[in-house]
Amino acid sequence: MTTKEGTVDPKVPSSLSQVGIVVKYEFENYFGSRRFYILLGITLLIGALLTVLVAHYRPQSFLGSGSLGFYSSWWGRVVTFVVILSGIFFGGDAISAEFQNRTGYFLIPNPLRRAAIYVGKWIAAFGASAIVFVVFLAITLANGYYYFPSGVPSQFLESVGFSLLYLVAVLGFCFFFSSLFKSTAYSILVTAILLLFAFDFLQLLVSDLVMVEPWFILTYGSSIIGNVMEQNATTGQASYPAHVITEKLGPRGLITLTTYNATIPEGLAIMVGYFVITAIIGLILFERKDFT
User: Fold this and answer.
1) pLDDT tens digits along 88-109
2) N or C: which terminus of the chain carries fewer CB neighbours within 10 A?
3) Beta partners for residue 256, in sequence order
4) What's this model's pTM, rounded to 2 decimal places?
5) What separation, in Å, do the N-terminal and C-terminal C-alpha atoms of the chain show?
């Protein structure tokens, strides 16, 4: 707020301060609610189950291909699920709840910009998700060090970085749908269906039947998380899969099956694109939506 003299009213916090205020109170909401502890409990349960099953059965896919094979099986197969759950738990209703629960009526009259509310909520959601992410990472590293104390392969560190970027993209995507709907049930349900089932089915449909690269699907871009730790079956060394794999199936090879694998630059571009586009559109929707 600017006075007649052209100076800034010290009573009105800056945009950065507003974001900090929203982040603070959102963190208090997360740590005071059950959803954070439920997701943390689910993550710990997944880690405990994996630890017990690998220790008891010692599967070849986990322990028979060296440290890279271990991290590929443990991290590459599970972390995307943890990331998606984090996005649904912390971003699925972050904005829609303000409309459904009428809490937005108490926020908007205050000298808070809607952009500051949106950004602050996103940062808080990312922070809460990052805590869950780090817990699963710690469990993975503890088990990896137990079975392969020689060191952590560089491909796993790359995969961790890709996973964090995927978390950013998933939260942007969830915030978009949370801004689109005024009902928390709709926003959570739509994001859960798309991220857990629909995208994978659509990717299979587009690549196998239509034989078109599904570059426009978020989960296709996230495949680099596991692909970067793929191994050559003969040498056991890291070997990123080919971009396009064509197989002939059936009698006389009449059926052609085409599999697409996103390259690392392509996967990064897809995830960054999803975050930028969905986050911006979500903010615009939130700015224009009325509390009626």
Assistant:
1) 999 999 888 887 766 555 555 5
2) C
3) 248
4) 0.91
5) 26
Work out the number of other CB atoms within 10 angstroms of the CB of residue 9: 9
Looking up tokens 């349900």 gives 189
Distances (CA, A) of 236 to 66, 70, 232: 8, 12, 5
- What single string gives the DSSP state of each residue in 16-38? HHHHHHHHHHHHHHHHHSHHHHH
CA angle 6, 10, 13 (to 5 degrees): 110
Average pLDDT, the chain: 89
85 residue type, one letter: L
Burial 63-75 (b: 16+ CB within 10 A, else e): beebbbbbbbbbb
| Integer Cα distance of 21 and 120 in angstroms | 8
Task: State the angle between helix axes of 184-193 and 66-91 in degrees (0 to 180), rounded to the nearest 10.
Answer: 160
DSSP 6: S
